[in-house]
Specification:
alpha+beta; 3 domains; binds heme C; five-stranded antiparallel β-sheet; globular; 20 strands; six-stranded antiparallel β-sheet; binds copper (II) ion; Elongation Factor Tu (Ef-tu), domain 3
């Protein structure tokens, strides 16, 4: 081999090397870009979860399940698979609708306006992050791995391989679910963090002994953590089976002396006499006293000094006077939760916060985003529901004058965003009737009857679909309903409990 040949081979080899590196580089860039896009969706869904815990959970629930999570929550369920659509066309319109709903709120409902440009507190990026939390996609395009799977599914379907296509679509759905669920998990974690109560020593507040379902006295490791009457506490983490909400009736008294008291004074002036009870022993310094009378208005307590073998002493202003017991008297099963036994060590949380009842968006002032002002309430017919039935929300849709009865044992109820197109139904006693709901809107809806007990989400509810799930836009569902007693029963949509509303008259 002569020198020039050697040189040529060398050049050839170098050239190959350069090409190989070039190809590798381009490929690597692609993979990195895809991974970055994937991570972007996830990171934004997680940011969305944090924003949700800070701004939205008061109405939409710690887990984002709204009224499905607790009947007291007015917000719609947002943590649903039906919002994580794999249909690219649907994603575009869904993204738009969710973003606009968050930005503008919904006139005539409790859903507030969030867009900064509308006087709200969230910027566009933050609102996009909330949408990412709900859809599992960043913007109106799916992450690359999902796009790839969907393209493969299309090829498989075109080739007539339906089974493979379905499988690939399920895989794509699983990726969106996972991204969205990361965000929802973050929301729940942050909710727990925000609601955790710690005492002055930095210890987390817990039950100090087991409680039965009917115990109204809870012993805590420390009850001197600023609890006040009427406050709600949660026993066990929100979102976990068995968590219960209780209302504080009486927390142990704790305050400081408003003035110096001598050993002979039996009236103690306090900063606040709330929470003190007659018959309880309180402690100031090393002295114990028996509370005889409480004057909450004057912020004084009348005591018997130096009990339990202690001696009456002088106490300077600012001395801590407290009921050293760590017992809290509560009302069990508040906020429509079930009283249940709980074991010692169960964490005690603050909350939930009670959702506001108004004002409704756009009711006073200019409606946001140029939305029309809420329609003046059309005059519907007045029905007198059976005793104990839930109260019709202020802004619920009017009740139609036209009564719909079953045709061949079936009643069809078309639904739009957000109303039942038939909401004055009449059914016979004791006979099964099929109710078919047809969702002509885009938002998910269902139909739930409160039942004779007048409470939502209890054992005597009947729902369409029967499990109480939501029917995505464009789909329908049916269930057979039977009423064993006459009466007028309320129904509503779980996702839109404040506006989608109707009555079923049974018998007569
Ligand atoms: C004061 C209570 C309240 C707060 C706070 C609230 N919402 Fe809502 N939201 C509602 C109610 C009520 C609805 C149902 C409106 C209806 O019936 O159309 C709703 C509906 C929605 C919908 C539309 C669901 C659909 O498809 O119909 C979205 C999206 C939404 N809220 C997102 C949010 C986000 C994100 C936040 C926090 C930034 C938030 N909401 C805070 C009450 C609230
Ligand atoms: Cu609905």
């Amino acid at each position: 081999m002569n020198t020039s040949k050697q040189v040529n081979v060398m050049i050839g080899l170098l050239f190959l090397l350069v090409i190989t590196f070039g190809i590798y580089f381009v490929w690597d860039q692609n993979v990195r870009a895809e991974r970055a896009e994937e991570q972007q969706a996830e990171e934004n869904a997680i940011r969305g979860g944090k924003l949700f815990a800070l701004n939205c959970r008061i109405c939409h629930g710690d887990q984002g399940l709204g009224s499905q999570e607790n009947p007291n929550l007015p917000g719609a369920a947002l943590n649903l698979e039906s919002y994580r659509t794999i249909d690219p066309g649907q994603l575009t319109s869904l993204h738009q609708r969710l973003f606009e709903t968050i930005r503008c709120g919904r006139v005539g409902t409790l859903m507030p306006t969030w867009g900064e440009d509308q006087g709200g507190t969230l910027n566009n990026t933050q609102m996009q992050q909330l949408v990412a939390l709900i859809t599992g996609a960043w913007g109106d395009e799916h992450p690359p791995s999902v796009r790839k799977l969907l393209a493969q599914a299309q090829v498989a379907r075109a080739a007539g391989d339906e089974a493979t296509a379905t499988e690939l679509e399920a895989e794509a759905q699983a990726i969106l679910n996972e991204i969205s669920e990361k965000g929802w998990e973050t929301a729940l974690e942050l909710a727990h963090e925000q609601d955790t109560i710690v005492n002055a020593a930095g210890e987390v507040v817990r039950l100090a002994r087991d409680v039965d379902a009917d115990d109204t006295n809870l012993l805590l490791n420390d009850a001197h953590v600023g609890l006040s009457a009427d406050q709600l506490l949660r026993l066990g983490p929100s979102g976990e089976e068995g968590s219960e909400v209780v209302r504080v009736v009486q927390a142990p008294g704790s305050s400081t002396l408003a003035r110096r008291v001598g050993p002979g004074d039996d009236t103690l002036p306090l900063e606040s006499a709330a929470n003190f009870r007659p018959g309880v022993i309180v402690q100031a310094g090393s002295e114990r006293m028996l509370v005889i009378r409480v004057d909450a208005a004057a912020n004084t307590i009348i005591v018997m000094r130096g009990v339990d073998g202690t001696r009456a002493q002088e106490h300077p202003r600012g001395t801590l006077v407290q009921d050293p017991s760590n017992e809290v008297v509560v009302e069990r099963g508040a906020f429509d939760t079930q009283p249940r036994p709980h074991s010692a060590g169960t964490q005690v949380f603050n909350g939930p916060q009670i959702p506001p009842e108004g004002p409704l968006t756009g009711e006073s002032g200019t409606p946001p985003c140029g939305q029309r002002p809420p329609a003046p309430q059309e005059q519907g017919v007045q029905l007198t529901p059976s005793p104990g039935q839930p109260e019709r929300p202020r802004n619920a849709q009017p009740i139609q004058a036209t009564v719909t009865e079953p045709q061949n044992g079936v009643i069809e109820v078309p639904m739009q965003d957000n109303r039942f197109l038939r909401n004055n139904l009449k059914l016979p006693v004791g006979q099964p009737v099929t109710i078919r709901i047809v969702n002509q809107g885009q938002a998910p809806h269902n139909l739930r009857v409160a039942g004779p007990d007048g409470a939502w989400n209890t054992g005597d509810d009947q729902a369409v679909p029967s499990g109480g799930g939501l029917v995505p836009g464009g789909q329908q569902a049916e269930a057979s309903l039977t009423f064993q007693q006459p009466g007028i029963f309320a129904f509503r949509c779980d996702a839109h409990p404040n506006d989608m509303w109707g009555y079923i008259t049974v018998g007569q």
